[in-house]
Amino acid sequence: FRSNKQGQNWTTIAPNLPAAAVTLVELSAVDAQTVWSVWSEGNSQSQPQPQVVLRTTDTGSHWSKVKIPGD
After folding, report:
1. Among the four 30, 49, 60, 63, which has the fewest Cβ within 10 Å?
2. How many other C-beta atoms are found inside a 10 Å radius of the C-beta of residue 42?
3. Are 25 and 42 in contact (CB under 8 A)?
4. Can you spell out the DSSP letters for 12-31?
5. Paired residues of 29 in beta bridges
6. CA distance 44 to 63
7. Which is higher by pLDDT, 67 or 3?
């Protein structure tokens, strides 16, 4: 979901997330436009899963993978 009116109205969106993004782990809004998110790349609960960091700067319309040093 996305809100452009401080949560007064919400719109369902289907963002074009990378295939690696399977399970949302953490979400952090920096401001009205920018959000960082951490996603698990797998769905196994019995084994640790690789994670991917994604960022949007246009209220969630487009997401890009953030390159982590050493990754």
Report:
1. 30
2. 13
3. no
4. -------TT--EEEEEEE-S
5. 35
6. 24
7. 67
Residue 36 has pLDDT above 90, yes or no: yes
Per-residue confidence (pLDDT) for residue 19, from 0 to 100: 67
DSSP assigned state of 64: E
In the numeric block, the tokens 């209220």 are attached to 59
**Rounded CA separation 1/46 (Å):** 30
Angstrom CA distances, 5 to 8, 16, 38, 56, stand at 5, 22, 25, 17
Please report, as a single letter, which amino acid is at residue 23: T
| Residues 44/59, Cβ–Cβ less than 8 Å | no
Phi first, then psi, for residue 29 (nearest 5°) are -85, 125
